[in-house]
Amino acid sequence: MFNRFNQLHESSEDPLVLPNCWDVVTARLIEEAGASALATTSAAVAWSMGSPDGNQLDRDLMLANLQRITEAVDVPVSCDIEGGFGDDDKALSETTRMVIGAGAVGVNLEDSLDDGSLRSVDDAARRVKVVREAAGKEGVDLYLNARTDTYLVGDGDLDDTLARADAYLSVGASGVFVPGTADLATISTLTEAIQAPVNILVGPESPPVPELAEAGVRRISAGSSLAGAVLGHLSRAAHELLNEGTYQRLEIPLPWADLNALF
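Above: the chain's sequence. Below: its structure in C-alpha cell form.
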C-alpha cells in the first residue's frame, strides 16, 4: 500500500484527486465512486466526534476512527494529523507510529499553530524530520505531505512558501501541500518552483481539475468542503422538515439497500 500510494503522486498525466472522508460510510462511498486512494479531513473527523477542529480532538479517538476506515476499504488511506497531536518530538513520533499501526500510508503535517501564526521554518522543518525518522524506524516509506499555511493563515508570501517547501523537502517531506490559493498563475509558479508533488485544496471557487492538472498540480484535496456541503444539506433538510413540514430536500436519496450493501 505504501508504494502504491507514493506512485499515485508520480503520474505525468492525471493528478491524485481526494474527496476527503471522515468516517467509514463516507470512505466507502468515496471508494465506490472510483477513488484510487482516500484521505481523512481532520475538521470533519473532529466534528463527527463532537470536537472543534484545530488540534483539539483526542488522539485515541482519531486513531480508532482511522483504523475503522482502513479496515473497511481496499485502497490506500492517508491521515490528516493536523499539528501532530503534541508539541514535543516524543508525542509527534508516537503519533506517527500509531497512525502507521492503524493502517495509514501517508500523513499531512501542518506548520501553523493554534493561534493562527506559523511556526518558524526551522521548527516546522524539524518536525517534518521527526515524522520521517519515526516512519523510517517502522520500516515504511510513509508519504509525508508537508502542509504550509502561508496562504491560508499567513500573508501569501511566495518567497516564504518556497523557502518552507525547500526546507521541508530537504528533511524528508514527500510532497508539499499549499492550501489557500485558487489563482492558477500562483499555482503554476508553485508547481514549477517546488521540486516535488504539489497538493492544492479545492472548493466551489477553485479551477476545475483539468486546469489544475495543466498547471502542474499532482494532488487535489477537497478538505472539509465536501463535509461542509453534506452537513449543509442535512441542516437545510432538517429545517425544512421541522419548520415547513415538507420533504423536498429529501429527494434523490441513496437507497437504503445500496447503503447497506456497502458493508
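The mean pLDDT is 97.
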